[in-house]
């Protein structure tokens, strides 16, 4: 049986071929149609039978009449973007007002438009009628509602097949229009961790051997001999361990759930000038996206510019400093001396682990209601639960 002959006109056949080619070249990495083509660009990807602009114009006119092409004004002149076939078919069934609302929303492109702005552009059309037309367009899957980070309470509409711009949805630090604070904090912590690991020359770690002989020697050195008060005998006795005047006892660390491991303590030594490559924004970005430290969806959307923004924040917080890399002529980054990162699962600041005075170790030194604590009051030393915890620690 012979193949059925295509009875369409040459213009319709060429238009179909051009439309398919434009679809293939219009999709971005997220699957949305965002590109606009000039007449010259369309001529480059047109079928072989179309060699001149005069041959292209009937095709553009045909696709525009079928609502498959949309005409736009650009800085370089006229341009055309495509519509999905499903949308073009649905547009043909719209009434006059619905088509006007659709074109208003279409003109907003990837930034979207508010309901109030749509009503203002529709002139004297009543708000209930505008709302009804918008609902019909949503039901036909021609438009959609997106959440704007700039105005979360406002409804923003855009075409169903478009991908919202970052001005609307935010960057990688936003999730469904809301700021993802946990991701932001973890990313900053991860950046400090990696930069610190590549910023300093690590000195030899101090090994603390816990053999018995050294323990015994230390205990003998810590023993303080005092007079027992027996005149004439000259006998000496060892000061009791619980003697409150024993100043040889080192202050207790203020700790909650974590103690320092001396095996991990090291000295930060600076590299000699001009011999070390400090991490650049591109290096840090490559480390983050190639590691499993963050979710794959976040890793795919994270950009070098967003990493650079994090670096700027850390510089303003006095945690990083910029250094010039003489090997490649780019700015690198190094942590400030003493800056550390938060260990995974650590629930308190690193400063809380340091040794301090008796006042800072006792609960009163850190109590936020110290000024209102008094005997007989609702907050008083007799009923303070933190004293027992501290004394029993």
Automatic annotation (TrEMBL):
Biased composition (Basic and acidic residues) is annotated at 213-223
What SUPFAM superfamilies does the record tag this protein with? Winged helix' DNA-binding domain (SSF46785)
Please tell me whether the keyword Iron is annotated for this protein.
no
Q: Where is this region: Disordered?
A: 204-240
Write the record's keywords in alphabetical order, separated by commas.
Answer: DNA-directed RNA polymerase, Nucleus, Transcription
Q: Which InterPro entries match?
A: RNA_pol_Rpc34, RNA_pol_Rpc34-like, WH-like_DNA-bd_sf, WH_DNA-bd_sf
Q: Which GO terms describe its cellular component?
A: cytoplasm; nucleoplasm; RNA polymerase III complex
Locations listed in the record:
Nucleus
Q: Which Pfam families match?
A: RNA_pol_Rpc34
Free-text function comment from the UniProt entry: DNA-dependent RNA polymerase catalyzes the transcription of DNA into RNA using the four ribonucleoside triphosphates as substrates. Specific peripheric component of RNA polymerase III which synthesizes small RNAs, such as 5S rRNA and tRNAs.
Tell me the protein family, please.
Belongs to the eukaryotic RPC34/RPC39 RNA polymerase subunit family.
Protein name, please?
DNA-directed RNA polymerase III subunit RPC6
